Amino acid sequence: MIPNERPVIANSLWTATANRMPDFPPLEGQSKTDVVVVGGGFSGLSTALHLAEAGVNVTLLEAQQPGWGASGRNGGQINVGLKDAPSVIRKKFGTSYGNRMIEMSGQAGDLVFDLIAKHNIQCDAIRPGWLRAAHTPKTLTELHALAQEWQGLGADVRPLDRDGMAQLTGTGEYLGGLIDMRGGNLQPFNYAVGLADAAERLGAVIHGGSAVTKIEKTATGHRVHAAHGAVEAPQVMLCTNAYSNKDLHANLSKSVLPVRSVQVATKPLSDNIRKSILPELHALSDARRLLLYFRLDAEGRFLMGGRGTYNDTSTRRQFERLKKVTAKLYPQLADVEWDYAWGGFVALTRDHYAHLHEIAPGLKAGLGYNGRGVAIATAMGRVLAQWAQGTPEDELAFPVTTIKPLPFSFARETMVEAEILRLRLLDKLGV
Fold first, then answer.
1. Spatial CA neighbour of 180 closest among 256, 289, 105
2. What is the pLDDT at residue 291?
3. Nearest to 36 by CA among 228, 225, 231
4. Cα separations in angstroms, 19 against 22, 63, 117
5. What local confidence, expressed as pLDDT, does residue 424 receive?
6. Is the pTM of this model over 0.85?
7. Exposed, middle or buried, 273 (CB in 10 Å: 0-12/13-18/19+)?
8. If we measure between CA atoms, which residue out of 353, 299, 310, 346 comes closest to residue 81?
9. DSSP structural state of residue 34
10. Whole-angstrom Cα distance, residue 88 to residue 86?
11. Contact 160, 144 (CB under 8 A)
12. What is the DSSP string of 93-128?
């Protein structure tokens, strides 16, 4: 079970199968360092690791333990690229930024696998590719066009027709889609803890149980306070994503919409059933607005995930919906036993892009990974590390933008419930 979490979303497969549970000590007393990183998810851990690799003194503060939040609870899919096609990214951000964003996001999977190999992180990482599946003719056309664009940039991304998708998935429910060979799977909690261990071995100081209560300006930077101590640094990097709160910065927490992403997992499947589902062990995300995503884990469990809400009752209903969807896709799983059901919060932004913000000189933030956190948050951590070391804003892979609070952020739980109903209707209508 995930410690210190609401019971309805605490029964996590990844926590139950972890190599070890992290136990980094809380911050005590007063100290100084070069950079303070706040948040022990993928982006914060990657930031700390890349800074430590560069010989920078860095201290990371996590409210619980590394990997506790969404980073240790997601589907473990390594999904590359951004929301839009490369041509759209260039149109929105210009050629210079657009090309850097495309390159960074397209190579994000390489970075994940490189870090795993370099630091010997044991997280069941495999790279069979990532499937994106279409359930309507419209989304099929869009995915095939996307595959063509990436092919034009030299990426190993191929369109799939209905037969090709059925062969790789074991179900005929999809019209086709694409396969992106840059993607893969891993055990996300083990990956997060592995990043933390690697950063610590290189000299990073990591504190769990150290929720930040206040950040105050000093003559030379900022002092970051936790319950039993404080650390001062010229640079502070906020990497709290969907778990941002007003203690860090009021408007930062209002700039993203935290949405619960939930999953269920079966008992390990028999060999006969296992071979009939995703026989080459791909991960799949469909093209719905309220997407479904599924895969097998290293021990042959079937995992199905989707969007949930804040409400515990509706979250339980979503767990049951995911089981019903599974039985429709794979009738052989209709009577399977389900051992785990859990969830965490992903951060959605208004434009569905990750954001970089400079809140004040020496106080910076990166957040908003919109459900692609394994790869994109890892890559953004490297960008944040470069920024902390003095890389000019106009040379970063992502633009630095002004924080813009979402409208009606004070009623975000109601907003989420309403938006999910709207998107579910649009998905049902196929528009």
1. 105
2. 81
3. 231
4. 9, 21, 17
5. 56
6. yes
7. middle
8. 353
9. S
10. 5
11. no
12. HHHHHHHHHHHHHHTHHHHHHHHHHHTT--S--B-S
CB distance 188 to 66 below 8 Å = no
Mean pLDDT of the chain, nearest integer? 93
Q: How far apart are CA 140 and CA 400, in angstroms?
A: 34
User: With 80 as the cut, is the pLDDT of residue 415 above it?
Assistant: no
**What letter does residue 331 receive in the DSSP assignment?**
G
Q: How many CB atoms lie within 10 A of CB 151?
A: 14
- The HSE-up count of residue 246 (CA atoms within 13 Å, CB side) is 3
- Give the whole-angstrom CA distance, residue 257 versus residue 239: 15
Please give the structure tokens belonging to residue 65.
């333990």
The answer for residues whose C-beta is within 8 angstroms of residue 171's C-beta and 6 or more apart is 277, 329, 330
**126 is written with which tokens?**
């495999």
Residue 342, both tokens: 């859990």
Pairing of the two strands 338-348 and 257-266: antiparallel
Average pLDDT over residues 393-402: 95
**Residue 115 neighbours by CB under 8 Å, 6+ apart:** 46, 49, 121, 195, 198, 378
Does residue 19 carry a pLDDT above 70?
A: yes
| pLDDT, position 118 | 98
- Please give the domain boundaries of the chain with CATH numbers for all domains: 1-129+182-431 (3.50.50.60)
Closest CA to 253 of 241, 245, 262, 264: 245
Identify the residue whose tokens are 């069941």: 124
To which H or E segment does residue 377 belong? helix 373-388
What would the two tokens of residue 298 be?
A: 């290293």
Q: What distance in Å separates the CA atoms of residue 364 and residue 43, rounded to the nearest whole number?
A: 13
Q: What is the largest CA-CA distance in the chain?
A: 66
Burial class (CB in 10 A: 0-12, 13-18, 19+), 219: exposed
The Cα 48–Cα 294 span in angstroms is: 30
Residue 186 to residue 374: CA distance in whole angstroms: 9
CA dist 397 and 401 (Å) reads 13
Gap between the Cα atoms of 185 and 170, Å rounded? 18
3-state secondary structure at position 431:
coil
DSSP E strands, 125-234:
130-134, 157-160, 176-180, 184-185, 205-207, 214-217, 222-226, 229-233
CB 33 within 8 A of CB 58: yes
At 261 the three-state DSSP class reads: strand
Mean pLDDT of 81-104: 96
Centre a 10 Å sphere on the Cβ of residue 148 and count the other Cβ atoms it contains.
14
Residue for token digits 């990214």?
A: 89
